[in-house]
Design goal:
Structural class: alpha/beta
Keywords: Oxidoreductase, Pyruvate
GO molecular function: oxidoreductase activity, acting on the aldehyde or oxo group of donors
Shape: globular
Strand content: 15-25%
Protein name: Indolepyruvate oxidoreductase subunit IorB
Radius of gyration: 16 Å
Pfam family, one: POR
InterPro entries: IorB_Oxidoreductase, Pyrv/ketoisovalerate_OxRed_cat, Pyrv_flavodox_OxRed_cen
Distance between the termini: 34 Å
Oligomer: single chain
Number of helices: 7
CATH class of one domain: Alpha Beta
Order of helices and strands: EHEEEHEHEHHHH
CATH architecture of one domain: 3-Layer(aba) Sandwich
């Protein structure tokens, strides 16, 4: 029987969803597995939705895109985007999401504040294994807002949801990230893993 893991990574433009999918792909290739990825990007430069499909297998993969109900793991960089992609998750799958919302570009400062709480409640009631990560605290600990993506990968890896160890992701980071950013991304990876297990 072949091994296959299907992962959806959902966020908004600027949060690093594409880099996160590349790190998963690198870890998979380093492990000798097949991987196919695809991004759906909507106004990413303006904070629009970005959804990455990442499919990993030890057998040929017909398409990089998943149909609804196929994803084993959903990583949400923003709670509303996690809910938006929830239809891709299979029953009993795993959701790892950031607790902090990012207000959609359509919401003006004068409108009602978007707290994300309703989205987190929707995720809590969806029947999936759910881990809510305090991404803001991790970013503050590391000293950069740019490490949220790697922290959430670390959380998913720490839960065993991705099929790759933290050491494998460390290697992928060293291979994929500019040298001056390697250390802080590795620290974010481990902070995310600790957060998921707390």
């Amino acid at each position: 029987m072949s091994m296959q893991t299907n992962i959806i990574i959902a966020g908004v433009g600027g949060q690093g969803t594409v880099l996160a999918s590349k790190l998963v792909a690198r870890a998979a290739m380093d492990a000798g597995l097949r991987v196919r990825t695809s991004e759906t990007i909507g106004m990413a430069q303006r904070g629009g939705s970005v959804v990455s499909h990442v499919r990993v297998s030890d057998a040929p993969i017909a398409s990089p895109l998943m149909a609804p109900g196929m994803a084993d793991v959903l990583i949400g960089f923003e709670p509303g985007e996690a809910v938006r992609s929830l239809a891709f998750l299979r029953p009993g799958g795993t959701v790892v999401t950031n607790a902090q919302p990012v207000a959609p570009v359509a919401i003006s400062p004068a409108s009602a504040a978007y707290s994300g709480q309703a989205m987190l409640e929707r995720l809590d009631g969806c029947g999936a294994r759910l881990a809510v990560i305090d991404g803001a605290s991790i970013c503050a600990e590391i000293g950069s807002l740019k490490v949220l993506n790697v922290a959430l990968l670390g959380a998913a890896a720490g839960l065993g949801a991705l099929g790759f160890s933290l050491d494998q992701f460390e290697t992928a980071i060293r291979e994929s990230v500019r040298e001056r950013f390697v250390d802080m991304n590795i620290r974010a990876l481990h902070a995310g893993a600790r957060s998921a297990s707390a």
